[in-house]
Specification:
362 residues; alpha+beta; Cyclophilin; eight-stranded antiparallel barrel; 6 helices; elongated
Length: 362
């Protein structure tokens, strides 16, 4: 989706910004945006755009963003905010014209992908950045290189996405979406990934409860046979990545398949997305029989990521060709309901939703 940034009204001339922050103090910083729709955390990219980051930090510490609004939204496109004029509800017709013309363009190799944060520009004036910024809700590849990307959403991309969907007239929200406070903090130390250091014995004690619109199934795991696959499935499940996905394929007497993230009700957040990785082909001798949980892949055996299938009947052709990593131990009657569901080709006629996948340790 390609979006265009527009400004309305007259723009006053501004003096170019000069940073007083030592370069070392720009490193490893985050901005926490508390909004009326939820909290959004940005990683500030000082190496890519030091002047833009310095201005953002300076303005945030001055309270310049507090009480401003996201004054422009494009559903599943961008959200735009940071205009100091937007603090005043009485000047709504001028929103989008303030705080610009103080920064020179800083070219970098950052892409305009989902979560990118870039400086708004006056049309036709490359060196006109300032307080205003926009957040990409979806990839805006055609804008790459045209705007300075100075931050990326670290947490809260789904909050930004919901803001983009707010009711609007000609991209102007019908109700005020306020940025109540922006604070700058040091980037926290990384949190260790879940299940990364668990032994195979420890992993084998976990169970996953797959809650579907037709009932619940419980699965056990075989980490001694497919350890990387088990870890990835558990991470995706615990993060909520499977929640709102579907059983999109049912072939009677063969498999029921789900876990495709593009069929999820909502886009993944940044943490969930980081867990969707290509898996090594951990093929093993586990027989693919009724209830076996296995990882799907394309023509490339190492192309599996999140899509899994549950075997509906003994199928020797799948043995040693797919990574069997677990088995349904409870809820086989639910699996039979899934198999019996009406299909159009291989697609269920009625949506079979994976409501959530809960990770438990009995």
């Amino acid at each position: 989706m390609l979006v265009f940034l527009m400004l309305f009204g007259l723009l006053q001339a501004q003096t170019l910004f000069t940073s007083t922050i030592p370069p070392a103090d720009l490193q490893n910083k985050q901005a926490v945006l508390e909004t009326s729709g939820g909290t959004i955390v940005l990683d500030l990219l000082a190496d890519a755009a030091p002047n833009h980051v310095a201005l953002f930090i300076t303005r945030a510490r001055e309270g310049a963003f507090d009480g401003t609004t996201f004054h422009r939204v494009i559903a599943m496109g961008i959200i735009q905010g940071g205009d100091p004029i937007s603090k005043d509800p009485a000047q709504k017709e001028k929103y989008g014209t303030g705080g610009l013309g103080v920064l020179r363009f800083e070219p970098n190799d950052q892409k305009m992908t989902r979560g990118a944060v870039a400086a708004v520009l006056v049309p036709g004036r490359r060196d006109s950045g300032g307080n205003q910024f926009f957040i990409c809700i979806t990839d805006q590849n055609a804008l790459t290189g045209q705007y300075t990307v100075f931050a990326r959403v670290a947490e809260g991309i789904n909050i930004a996405q919901k803001i983009s969907m707010a009711p609007a007239e000609m991209t102007v929200p019908t109700e005020r979406i306020e940025i109540t406070k922006v604070t700058i903090r040091d980037k926290p130390a990384p949190v260790p990934e879940p299940f990364l250091t668990e032994t195979n014995d420890g992993l084998s004690k976990y169970r996953a409860v797959i809650e579907t619109s037709l009932g619940n199934m419980t699965a056990q795991f075989y980490p001694d046979r497919a350890p990387t696959t088990v870890r990835q499935f558990l991470r995706l499940a615990q993060s909520g990545a499977f929640d709102g996905t579907v059983i999109h394929r049912v072939v009677k007497g063969f498999v029921a398949q789900g876990g495709v993230m593009s069929m999820r009700r909502e886009l993944l957040d940044e943490k969930q997305e980081s867990y969707v990785r290509r898996l090594p082909p951990e093929f093993n001798a586990t027989p693919h029989e009724k209830g076996t949980l296995s990882m799907a892949h394309g023509d490339d055996p190492g192309s599996g990521t999140s899509s899994f299938f549950i075997v509906l009947a003994r199928t020797p052709a799948l043995d040693k060709a797919y990574a069997a990593f677990g088995k349904v131990t409870e809820g086989l009657d639910v699996l039979e309901k899934i198999e019996a569901a009406p299909v159009n080709g291989e697609a269920p006629v009625t949506r079979i939703e994976v409501i959530r996948v809960r990770v438990i340790k009995p």
